[in-house]
Design brief:
Length: about 110
């Protein structure tokens, strides 16, 4: 049974990673709307920006990603929305992981 589950996960990891990213986006939207009382439109724009940044920066050095996450959290502190920016940083990091899964066979 465990081998079947492991084989299924390995053979469908791209679909599963996209599905998990979609679930994370929905959870961030729900947290922002219900707990933080922020309209969904700006949150969706932030998530789109996170995906765009991840797409543009997924081949750079690891320390650059650390700087991006630190800058996001500092922006959250300055805007008094730390939780929202931490959630956006999580979306950014997971979008990078999804991009690495999709580019796994490609080498420059």
């Amino acid at each position: 049974m465990k081998d079947q589950v492991k084989d299924y996960i390995v053979s469908h990891k791209k679909v599963l990673s996209i599905a998990f990213l979609c679930v994370m986006v929905i959870v961030v939207n729900l947290i922002a709307a219900l707990a933080l009382k922020i309209s969904i439109v700006p949150v969706c724009l932030l998530i789109i920006l996170e995906a765009a940044m991840a797409g543009c920066l997924h081949h750079v050095e690891l320390w650059v990603h650390g700087l991006v996450v630190i800058a996001q959290i500092i922006a959250g502190v300055l805007a008094h929305q730390v939780l929202l920016m931490v959630l956006c940083a999580v979306i950014y990091i997971f979008a990078l992981v999804v991009l690495q899964v999709f580019c796994e066979g490609d080498h420059e």
